[in-house]
Design a protein that fits this description.
The protein is α/β, with parallel strands linked by helices. The longest helix has 36 residues.
Length: 186
């Protein structure tokens, strides 16, 4: 009798563990679904790229580091734009930004790059930009409103916007020269 009670207890434990895993899985699925539906920019996966359904990119106006303002509307009809959402503490941003700056220097007659820092102090951002010799315009999204309008949830995130002002691709992670050429050839 003691043996069958022990087997019954083990079976009950396994059922409880299975139920907990199912509940956790459902919770993760619900969280992931809700997170996607809050984004204003929708992604349609194609292969490994994050191609966007073509839609008008939300305009914004932010204070530039060093004075003045910058807005997306300034470039409509003139140049494609790369938005680079970053933070100085982000190791991937520290690695990617100098490379992006090289692309900017090479193609700045054809594209614009706008660095958008997420919520940091201006003096911290200024030191980082000077130390890394970043030459493209930098703005600080202190309220997070621009990041929210693009559905950005983490740093080292890029959005490509064509000359007509349409968001054409989201790039989570490092940007490549092929991404820049895609934007130029739009």
């Amino acid at each position: 009798m003691a043996m069958s009670k022990e087997l019954y207890d083990k079976g009950s434990s396994n059922i409880i563990i299975a139920i907990v895993f199912v509940i956790i899985f459902i919770g993760i699925a619900i969280f992931a679904t809700q997170g996607r539906s809050n984004s204003n920019i929708t992604e349609t996966p194609t292969n490994s790229d994050s191609q966007l359904t073509k839609q008008v990119a939300p305009d914004f106006s932010l204070e530039k580091l060093g004075g003045g303002t910058i807005s997306l509307a300034e470039y409509k009809g003139r140049k494609g734009v790369v938005l680079d959402f970053f933070a100085t503490w982000c190791p991937n941003c520290r690695r990617d930004m100098p490379k992006l700056n090289g692309f900017y220097e090479k193609y700045k007659d054809q594209i614009e790059v706008i660095g958008i820092d997420l919520h940091e102090n201006e003096s911290v951002v200024r030191k980082f930009i000077e130390k890394n010799n970043i030459t493209f315009p930098i703005a600080i999204d202190s309220s997070g409103s621009v990041a929210r309008s693009y559905g950005v949830r983490y740093t080292n995130f890029h959005v490509l916007i064509d000359k007509e002002g349409n968001a054409i691709k989201a790039i989570p992670g490092d940007i490549s020269e092929q991404d820049i050429l895609l934007l130029i050839n739009q």
